Amino acid sequence: MSRSFYSGTGTRSEAAFLGESIQEATHSGFARAPFLRENRVARNEDYGYFYTYATAAHHFGDEHYKRDLAMSQRFLVIGLARAGTAMAIALAKSGARVHVVDQKAADQLSMLKEMDKLEALGIEVSTSWTGEVDWESIDVIAPSPGVPLRHPTLREARARGVPIWSEIEVGYRLSIAPIIAITGTNGKTTVTALTYCILRDCGKEAVLCGNIAGSGYPELPITTAAQQSTSDQILVAEVSSYQLEFIHTFRPQICAITNITSDHVERHGSAEEYREIKRRIFENLSADDFAIVNSQKPETRTPDIL
Predict the structure, then answer these.
(1) Which of 99, 171, 223, 227 is the one with CA 20 to 30 A from 250?
(2) What is the Cα–Cα distance from 205 to 235, expressed in whole angstroms?
(3) Which domain holds residue 116?
(4) CATH code at 267?
(5) Contacts of 226 (CB under 8 A, 6+ apart)
(6) What pLDDT sits at residue 268?
(7) Which residues are bridge partners to 52 per DSSP?
(8) Are residues 59 and 195 in the same domain?
(9) How far is residue 155's CA from residue 161's CA, in Å, rounded to a whole number?
(10) CA 107, 109, 110, 114 torsion: positive or negative?
């Protein structure tokens, strides 16, 4: 079971609470954090009540991730936009054979530039793609976040037993830096940027990445950040429900859900399915990891996160 950290209502904003809670976890471990005392329960006038399962000192980053430097799988990457291009480049630089497809025609200068960049790395690119796949030539499909779960190619891949890895799954497998992942319907960009700023101000080598855009700080796709990562960095990633659809081993060392309200029903089919996909962020956590949730918002927890 992962370590859970609860907040009450408090007087500070949710963003401030979550950001500073994550900073405490990275710096000293909950057991030695100043606001956690005996019986694992404490109160702070600014925050309200907290609860954590941590009972011993835990140093963030003790468990180093191991990048697969000899990734030999054959990948079909769907999508030639920011996420797909970054995935293809990161995979190719890690030794994978990559073929990128896109339904759009190569009739825009921006797309032609991306194609030139990929082809220079030996990546095969096909535009005006109609959905046909040579199933004997691929081992893994890596769809861009914009490709829905119900896409015919992904349905066939599941029927054939072909693994489907989302952008964050690829990033996790490539990273040797620990990952902090933040999701939620509202506030996730604010919390992600705030966490990045707090860690940088504390002297940590934080890297802002994932599904974040327009924060005003340097931002990278998570696969780019992961492929370039070093063990002394911390990847601070905003994560969307689209990216959580196809995870298998994705395991952030610290994760948080800001809140969950009905959203993206046209993509996920129902509010309930959307909520369950959001909560997949907890799916692979172990006793060495931290989940930061709000005690006043039970929809952000699962039965494992009591």
Answers:
(1) 99
(2) 9
(3) 74-166
(4) 3.40.1190
(5) 67, 90, 170, 171, 172, 173, 174, 175, 177, 209, 235
(6) 59
(7) 5
(8) yes
(9) 10
(10) positive
